[in-house]
Amino acid sequence: MERLPRWADVALVPLVSLLLAAVIAALVILAIGQDPWEAITVMVQGSIMDSYGWGYTLYYATSFIFTGLAVTVAFHASLFNIGGEGQAQLGGLGVALCCLFLPWPHWTLALIGATCAAALFGAAWAAIPAYLQARRGSHIVITTIMFNYIAAALLIFLLVDVLRPAGQMDPATANFPEATRLPTLNELPVFNLFFTSNVPANVTLLIALGMAVVVWLLLWRTRLGYAIRAFGKSEAAARYAGISPFTIIMVAMLISGGLAGMMAINNVMGEAERLLQNSASGAGFIGIAVALMGRNHPVGVVLAALLFGFLFQGGAELGLWTKIPIEMRTVVQGLVILFTGALDVMVRMLLTRIFNLFRAGRMAKGAA
Amino acid sequence: MASVGADARYAIELKGISKAFGPVQANKDIHIAVPKGTIHGIIGENGAGKSTLMSILYGFYRADSGEIFINGKPTAIPDSQSAIRAGIGMVFQHFKLVQNFTVLENVVLGAEEGALLAGSLSKARRVLTDLSREYELDVDPDAVIEDLSVGHQQRVEILKALYRQADILILDEPTGVLTPAEADHLFRILKGLRDQGKTVILITHKLREIMETTDNVSVMRRGTMVGTVKTSESSPEELAELMVGRKVLLEVEKAPATPGAVVLKVDDLRVRDEHGVERLKGVSFEIRAGEILGIAGVAGNGQSELLEALGGIAAATGRITLNGAELPLSGAGADGRSRRKAGIAHVPEDRQALGLIMDFAAWENVAFGYHDAPEYQKNALFMDNDALRADTERKMATFDVRPPIPTLAAKNFSGGNQQKIVVAREIERNPDLLLIGQPTRGVDIGAIEFIHKQIVALRDQGKAILLVSVELDEIRSLSDRVAVMFDGRIMGLRDPETTDERELGLLMAGIAEGSKGEAA
Amino acid sequence: MDYATLLQLLDTTLRLATPLLFACLAGLYSERAGIFDIGLEGKMLMAAMASASVAFLTGSVWVGLLAGMLASLLMAGLHGIASITFRGNQLISGVALNFVASGITVLIAQRLFGQGGRTPPLAGEARFSSITLPFAEELQGVPVLGPLYYEVISGHPLLVYVALATVPLTWWVLYRTRFGLRLRAVGENPAAVDTAGISVVGLRFAAVAITGILCGLAGAYMATALQAGFGREMTAGRGYIALAALIFAKWRPVAALWACLLFGFFQALALRPDVVEAVVQVKVPVPFLDALPYVLTVLVLAGFVGKAIPPRAGGEPYVKER
């Protein structure tokens, strides 16, 4: 059996996976007695047909770029960071503390400060699992899962017992001061030509895109990136080359946690403008899907984040305008992860078979 | 039609077996007949297709075409279960034992008597006692596998086969991990089995074993069977020629060494493995500029640990100095990068697991271990990938790497060309000391000659070289001095011009000259 | 804290430990066979929804239980196909199936009942009722032990006792039967099993199926015994706590019982912060108690409380090699 051509491996495999997920999703919609065509129409209408929809789609995509990049960096070091959710929540804590307790004269400075705080807190939350993996061999998948739950508990405690202003009922911090408010896309020059009404997508989108470039440069143009990728392919060989496993595990996870944490400037600072419970709302997990779908490449991650932004916003529209519950989007996310991440061998086998059929046909024709 | 020509005198008869993996034809129209009650050798170089053939016989692969006859009857072997039913037992090169199970549990696994274990275990205990008495196969049935020596683990594999009442026993490179004494014991066991009427197939690439133990021998070369001869009517020279297809040039042309100053001085070097077992037990030697010190020995006697300690991969204790400067053996500064900076290059024993990143392109592999070298940097932040690719092209031309495509992934090169990439990378750094392990393992003849010449040329430039190889011929023809390792120690140093294979063999078995009298 | 409060706590502990125990043993079969399963949560959720829905529709908790096990088996089958047949990444498959379960349970329940993704409350025959063990009433008067027997041991739904009985059963299967020997072998070295002529795929699918059945019991217990009906995300991370318990127990069945009881006890404590405060004399925030199982598991993973060595072939798809 011949192998797949490279373009098919890079582009066709994810597309077919996506198609399969879509087919199953359509079947699910049929099974609950709804119309898949109506569903897709509503989703497209509500997420990419006008600037309002785009405003939400891009807002979600911004978060997913961060968490997708976070998973990607760890993946290249052969580490499966499933703790993006917790790291993003801690990032939110960093943003909240930074915005609430430091006097910021202008949003630009606040943004720089909050970005650093978010990255720092996210990285710190990734540091313990990373250290345990590097020094004591504790399986990072399990420890990061545990840290997600520990983060959730910690934040509930902080929001209920510590940071909640007196007299407020819901577990959340006070609203951030006006000086820390980030401009949304409709308030930015050039962008305001397209975005005319108020949208949640904000200046953080630009930071997310910038981080995608930084991650690409890091992985494929720097010594550290070289070391991370080499370590990820073979720990034994990395040791031979004098690449320290401890350093790489720590650095890769700190970067990963930092990226996940930075997501908080989008949702906590850019949108909610206060820290709420469960602030990451699943974006940490979606980062796994985004990284898988994007083939662990920043360009792929950005595209996949857009796709998931569309699914997220479109799914919300489904909940609003059809009888299909909003949970449909969770199902679709699951299906996409399943087909792109766990069943990729199946898709590849399928495509290889089809390709070979074509090849055989061509050869038969050539012989005749 | 199927049974035409089948003969019940043969335990195994293969007719026209072919097997391809993609474009690679691993077996081509193989015919072989193994008479009952004999030890039959199958010999050939690495990659000649011996293991594939045996895997077909054991139901691991299905042949694309051809027939298998067991005791004269045509037999289909679609899976291991069928092979076991047909009376075939297999001892793999890498043992298939469950490490935290007892001997008894391993023997019983897959051959249980019923749904409950108690009966099976007590029966196995009885049978094991009988078998060990009959064939010198004594192992404690209640010992846990991970506590047993390699030799004992191999006996468990043989016991597993016999417990399943195998009449035909196939052993794939059984002595690679054994000491000479353990190997002799194994051969006694195999002869005992033959004398009881069992048929034994011994796959190996070592001529000596074939000459010592087998009744007949079949020679394979590049997927084809080039001939079967009676061992007693053959000679090692004849077999070697059959194996490689032309006269082997074992002598490397080199001028006498002109050793200079001491480059590497090793003093009481010790290494413990992750279980705390001492694998290198106080080794001391020195290498001078312009000489090759060869380390001979059976695999697993501390050679790997020696290379790893010197290469900065494994932590060690003791003292090493390079050109008079002491190098740290553990903690900061005891890593591959620092060693390279100090002037030590290292061609590792296992190039696929250590020396290369198989998924990386050739040009990325050329930077492996040297990715922070100044000439590969564009500025303080970024690497200069263009410079790296240009350097790769040049190296590929100098070392005749084929195909000369820098963007091709390492895994797509043949073993010989992979090794050339590693050797080019390490030698071109102009190191003071080159550590080189199993330089020609899995490398084709043409590349072997090339690599040997490169090693000698480096020596003639006045560099110090530490050569580790399990191929005694390689050690003898390349080295200026030979050290023999056994059980983590150096048993003795010899001049390859004056020593002989017998003397080195004794040292490899752990018998030093002083104790010759007692050992005899 | 008086004796009555303690008994009450222990009683709640047992109730809350039961789903953990089922799920933990479920994970044990799978992981001992070399298949990591972080999809315990999803399987429980599916089983909870299916059992509650069917129990409500048929009025029989037994039919509901069967449906729950089937739903969970289906999920297990998908995990098997992804991770055994197609040698996919077991962790990713688990994550994916958790997502699917989280969404689809709500979709189906909404479609069936239109009550915002919940099932209607179960009552009567559609729910497991508590069983009073023999002589519980009579022995109540015996000091200390009498109330213990009556309050803690007696008076639980049948599934609680099934869960407890599954512990020695699992031990026996694992260490005293042919199946158990092969199961443990395939998780340690599948090549040994393969060369012995046993199907690695068959064994692993068998293990994954048992995982499915036990997760089915866990989910059905949640929806038809512990509570009266299904609600969205009702398993609330119990699948992950079970996973934590499995690691805490170092993949051993009897230790799994103690781990689940301990984690169940923490959950019981989290329901009674007043009791905790009375005992330790400081106000302990409930989230701390919630986080305790996870923190303990991290400590175990870090090797501070013994060393947890997972089955050697765990997580690795088996590829035949010479």
From TrEMBL, chain A:
Does the keyword Cell membrane belong to this entry? yes
The record lists the membrane-crossing segments as 12-33, 53-75, 110-128, 140-160, 199-219, 240-263, 275-294, 301-322, 334-355
- How is this protein situated with respect to the membrane? Multi-pass membrane protein
Compartment(s): Cell membrane
Predominantly, its location class is: membrane
Keyword annotations for this protein, in alphabetical order, are: Cell membrane, Membrane, Transmembrane, Transmembrane helix
Xref: PANTHER family: ABC TRANSPORTER, PERMEASE PROTEIN (PTHR47089), GUANOSINE ABC TRANSPORTER PERMEASE PROTEIN NUPP (PTHR47089:SF1)
Q: What is this protein called?
A: ABC transporter permease
Automatic annotation (TrEMBL), chain B:
Which PROSITE patterns does its entry note? Answer: ABC_TRANSPORTER_1, ABC_TRANSPORTER_2
CDD domains in alphabetical order: ABC_Carb_Monos_I, ABC_Carb_Monos_II
Does the entry feature the keyword ATP-binding, yes or no?
yes
What residues does the ABC transporter domain cover?
Answer: 12-247, 264-512
Q: Does the keyword ATP-binding apply?
A: yes
Q: Which domain of life is it from?
A: Bacteria
One of the entry's Gene Ontology molecular-function terms is: ATP binding
- InterPro entries in the record, alphabetically? AAA+_ATPase, ABC_carbohydrate_import_ATPase, ABC_transporter-like_ATP-bd, ABC_transporter-like_CS, P-loop_NTPase
Write the record's keywords in alphabetical order, separated by commas.
ATP-binding, Nucleotide-binding
Name under which the protein is recorded: ATP-binding cassette domain-containing protein
The record lists the organism as: Paragemmobacter ruber
UniProtKB/TrEMBL annotation, chain C:
Subcellular compartments: Cell membrane
Transmembrane intervals? 50-78, 90-109, 158-175, 205-230, 251-271, 291-310
Which InterPro entries does the UniProt entry name for this protein?
A: ABC_transp_permease
Q: Which UniProt keywords apply?
A: Cell membrane, Membrane, Transmembrane, Transmembrane helix
The protein's predominant localisation is membrane
According to its UniProt entry, this protein's organism is Paragemmobacter ruber
Keyword set includes Membrane: yes
Q: Which ranges of the sequence are coiled-coil?
A: none
Annotated membrane topology is: Multi-pass membrane protein
- Cleaved signal peptide residues: none
* PANTHER family, alphabetized: GUANOSINE ABC TRANSPORTER PERMEASE PROTEIN NUPQ (PTHR43370:SF1), SUGAR ABC TRANSPORTER INTEGRAL MEMBRANE PROTEIN-RELATED (PTHR43370)
Q: What is this protein called?
A: ABC transporter permease
Q: Looking at the keywords, is Repressor present?
A: no
